[in-house]
Amino acid sequence: MSFSLGRTLIIGAGPAAFQTANLIASYCETIALASRQSVRWNERYALLEQSRVATCEAAKPSLEPLSGQVKFDHVFPDLTAITGRWDTLVLATPSHAYKEALLALPENALNDVKQVVLISSMFGGHQLVNGFFHSKDLSPNITVFSNYYAATKFSVCGNTDDVQTAGVKVITKAAKKRVYVHEKQKGGDAVSTFVHVLGNVGIDVVEMDNAFSVEGRNITAYVHPAFFITPFSLKHILSQNGDKKYMYKLFPEGPVTQSAIKTLVDLWRDISTLISHHSGTPINLLQFLNDDNYPVHEETISREQINGFSNLSPIEQEYLIYIRYTAILIDPFSTPDRQGRYFDFSAVPYAKGEVKDGKLILPRVPLEDLQTLYWIQALATHSKLRLPAVERILDIFESWLHDNKLPATVVEQLQSQAQENLCWVTKGNTSL
C-alpha cells in the first residue's frame, strides 16, 4: 500500500490547513500553501514569507501526536500566483468557498492533478468539485471527508528572526474519535495516506461507499440551524446590551427549548430524506451524537434506546434528544471540584454580529449554517424533494429580518450562491 501524495498543494488559510500540512508533509514530495486574498491571509503570509514554517502545538498530552513543525517548500501570496504542477490538491477551505477557490486557480496548476482531497465537505460538495473538473475535461480521484478531524485554533504567532520560532502557530485542543471518507476511485493514495496518518494519531477513519453518506455525517448541519437560526439566537447575536447567553444552555440562558429540539429532529428527517434520495445511508441521530461526538452515561440514556432511536415515535425521539442536551449541560465525565461541581460544558458564548454601512454582518455561526440550508434547499428543489423543516427554518430567518427591519440582501446573496453551486453540480452529470 502506497503512502505518497507527491507534489501537494494545500488551499486554505485556517488552522485546519496548517494542522493537515503538519500531518502529511513527510508523505509529500513537495508541499505548498496558498489561499484567497484577505486581510487575515495577508497577515499570515507576512509571517510565513521568510521562514515558511508553521508550528502545531497540542493542548494536552494525549494530543501530542498531532504536534510538530512543517516547513513549506512554497507559500503563494494569492491563488492566482500559484506556479508549478501538482499531483494532489487539498481543499482545507470552508466548503462553501470551493467554487471561488477552484475558479481562481491557474489552468496550468490543475492539469496534472491526480487527486483532490476535501477536508470537510458540505452536502453535495463532491459533486460540485467533480463538476468543476468535468468542465475542464479532467477527472481526478476525489476524496471527501465528513468533517475536519480536530478542533484547532491559531496561537501566538512569532515575529522573530529565529527560523525555529518564526511563522504561524496553531494549537489543537481536541481530536475527533472518527471521521468518514469516500473516494471516487477505490484504491487511491490519498485515502490510504490519510487513513495511515490519522490512525497514527488515534483517529479512526471509516470508509463508506457513498459520498452523500459521508457528507451527511457532519453534526453541525443538524444542530446549528435548529439552535442558532432562531429569533432568540439571532437577537442575541446582534444585541449590543452586554447580556450573556450561551450556545448550548437551556432557555433562558441559551436557545435549547422543546421547540428547538423538535426542529433538530425534524431537520434530521429532512436531511435523511435527501441522503436516501441519493442512495446514501442516513445517520441514527442519537447514536451519532453519543458515539461520534460526546457520550452520556448509560444511566441517563441506555444503549438500547440509542441503538433503537430511529424506530421510535417522533415524541419519543424528541424526548431522548432533550434528555441528551440536559445531560451535557455539564461534562458528565469530568472530575467534580470540591463543591461537587462538574465542568460547565455548555457555557459557550456566542460570536457577535452587527449591521454596518447598511449591511448585515453575521459571524461564522450562523452564516455558514444559513449557507448550508439555502444550499440544501436548492439541492432539494433540483431533486423535486420537499423538506419542510428546512423551509420552516429559512422562513423564520427571513421573517425575522423583515420584522426587525434588517437588510435582506444576505438572503439574495445566499440564494444566488446556492444556485451558482448547483450549476457546477449539474455540470458533473455523474454522481460519485
Characterization of this structure:
By secondary structure, this protein is an alpha/beta fold. The chain folds into two domains: 6-217, 3-Layer(aba) Sandwich (Rossmann fold), CATH 3.40.50; 220-420. It has 16 helices and 14 strands. The chain has an eight-stranded mixed β-sheet with strand order 5-2-1-6-7-8-11-12, with helices on both faces. α5 packs across α16 and α8 (220-228) packs across α14 (364-382). The two termini are 23 Å apart.
State the end-to-end distance.
23 Å
User: What sequence of helices (H) and strands (E) makes up the elements?
Assistant: EHEHEEEEHHEHEEEEHEHHHHHHHEEHHH
Unreliable parts: none
Global morphology: globular
Q: Give the helix proportion (percent range).
A: 40-55%
Beta strand % = 15-25%
Overall number of strands: 14
Number of domains: 2
Q: Would you tell me which CATH topology of the largest domain applies?
A: Rossmann fold
CATH superfamily label of the largest domain? NAD(P)-binding Rossmann-like Domain
Indicate the structural class. alpha/beta
| CATH classification class of the largest domain | Alpha Beta
Number of helices: 16
Order of strands across the main sheet: 5-2-1-6-7-8-11-12
**Biggest sheet character:** 8 strands, mixed
Instruction: Give the integer mean of the pLDDT values.
Output: 95
InterPro entries: Opine_metallophore_DH
Protein name: DUF2338 family protein
Pfam family, one: Staph_opine_DH
Organism: Vibrio penaeicida
